Recover the amino acids of this structure.
């Protein structure tokens, strides 16, 4: 009797187990059918699996998995500014991306760069630790064609002795009247100059002597190799001439290129509030010239050392934005242009008069200075800004 009971109990347990499996299977199938009816699907999208959850009202929430292109940093948009001209097909050139001075609402920047790998701490298992991050490669030097942009070609207005202007507005720029008008400010009584860089990471064509790790094409966060270094050189020249200088060496265009003018304007306002003796603001950039795959560098025929050219950009209120002092800035720009034309012919490219204001409404005496292009080397830019600094010192001290 005991044996029969044990066998019966065992068989009963086996039947219950099988019945449970069948019931669970039915429940799972029913649940799955209900989920499909509810809208959970696994679509194919460019070979990337994603979960698309249908929401009430017909909307769809897509949850990308790691590696989905939608999660990756977007590349910089194309420059919406005007190409800086050069002789022989000058209007066909266009700045590289990103490069040159952008109009307000500048293009999207890239993502932040990875930092160095953290060193192993005591007790770390080296087998479980992340491998060290490989150092990023240095930017590669590119061949560039030299060009001297004099303004003697088409598209420019000739005014004064050797002064050429690219006027992007319909305003009548009377250069002679600006030359005759006294400068509205002076640095003789302890007033100062502010140097800042809205696009601080703009860099130059690398060489073995001036190699750098790029954060984006023709850009680096290293202040020893971007336009901040050129600002250091201008500061030194002006200081040697007895002019007080504040150099804001902040990085305003990285990791996000968008909003760099807003961030730079906030910094300018802080500097003006802290140092009311600031009477002139130089926003120092470098330009970018490239067309049909050809990289250009500007060449100034001055002095024994290779030199880039410089370009002054003066903003206006032509776009409709408030900029009541743009004509004071124009007077400063014209005087700088005339000083360069007289002392260092070919140093200055034609001055650009823009319809936009580029933060120059913050204070009279505000200008953008483009020193060289992405085809120029850092050494050529440093040489150019030294010549410019001499001319700027002459104008500010009324020696021109």
């Amino acid at each position: 009797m005991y044996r029969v009971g044990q066998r019966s109990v065992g068989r009963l347990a086996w039947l219950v187990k099988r019945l449970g499996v069948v019931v669970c299977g039915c429940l799972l199938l029913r649940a799955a059918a209900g989920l499909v009816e509810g809208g959970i699907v696994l679509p194919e999208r460019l070979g990337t699996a994603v979960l698309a959850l249908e929401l009430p009202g017909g909307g769809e929430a897509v949850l990308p998995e790691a590696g989905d292109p939608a999660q990756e940093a977007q590349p910089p948009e194309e420059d919406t500014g005007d190409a800086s001209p050069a002789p022989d097909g000058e209007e066909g050139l266009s700045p590289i991306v990103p490069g040159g001075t952008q109009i307000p609402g500048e293009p999207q920047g890239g993502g932040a760069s990875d930092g160095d790998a953290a060193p192993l701490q005591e007790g770390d298992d080296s087998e479980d630790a992340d491998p060290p991050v490989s150092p990023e490669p240095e930017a590669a030097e590119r061949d560039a064609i030299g060009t001297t942009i004099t303004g003697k070609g088409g598209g420019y207005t000739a005014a004064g002795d050797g002064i050429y202007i690219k006027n992007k507005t319909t305003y009548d720029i009377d250069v002679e009247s600006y030359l005759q008008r006294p400068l509205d400010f002076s640095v003789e009584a302890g007033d100062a100059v502010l140097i800042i860089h809205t696009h601080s990471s703009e860099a130059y064509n690398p060489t073995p002597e001036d190699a750098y790790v790029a954060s984006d094409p023709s850009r680096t966060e290293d202040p020893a190799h971007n336009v901040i270094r050129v600002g250091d050189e201008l500061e030194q020249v002006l200081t040697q001439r007895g002019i007080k200088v504040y150099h804001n060496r902040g990085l305003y265009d990285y990791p996000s290129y968008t909003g760099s003018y807003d961030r730079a304007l906030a910094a300018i306002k802080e500097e003006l509030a802290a140092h009311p003796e600031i009477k002139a603001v130089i926003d120092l950039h470098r330009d970018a010239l490239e067309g049909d795959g050809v990289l250009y560098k500007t060449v100034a025929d001055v002095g024994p050392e290779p030199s880039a050219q410089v370009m002054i950009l003066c903003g206006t209120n032509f776009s409709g934005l408030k900029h009541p002092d743009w004509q004071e800035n124009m007077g400063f720009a014209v005087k700088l242009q005339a000083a360069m034309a007289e002392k260092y012919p070919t140093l200055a490219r034609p001055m650009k008069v823009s319809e936009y204001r580029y933060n120059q409404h913050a204070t009279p005496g505000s200008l953008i200075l483009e020193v060289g292009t992405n085809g120029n080397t850092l050494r050529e830019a440093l040489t150019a800004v030294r010549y410019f600094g001499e001319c700027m010192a002459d104008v500010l001290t009324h020696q021109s």
